[in-house]
Amino acid sequence: MSRKQETIAIIKQPETKPVVPGFHEWPVHTDCPHCDSSILTTLEYRPGTLTWIMCFFLMFIGLFLGCCFIPFCLDGCKDIAHMCPNCKNEIGRYYRI
Length: 97
Ligand SMILES: [Zn+2]
What we know:
Layout: E1 29-31, E2 38-40, E3 42-46, H1 49-60, E4 79-83, E5 90-94
């Protein structure tokens, strides 16, 4: 009894890791991992952890009746999503917390 051995060649393709620089509060030059073009990111403000913490803090000190939602109107309290202007995909995000 001889076992037939099969050799399977596994060809590993080098993973193309996106060039992800440190994202900050300003647009960055980078290569988009989605459309492979060199772009300057556009910024979109999204509610994040800090937004909710500020919301609960304002609620805690007694600002009810919608005032606790003020952080959702302030860009300074939101996370910043870096978007590709070509394909509109999100490339990275700057978290305030
Ligand atoms: Zn893109």
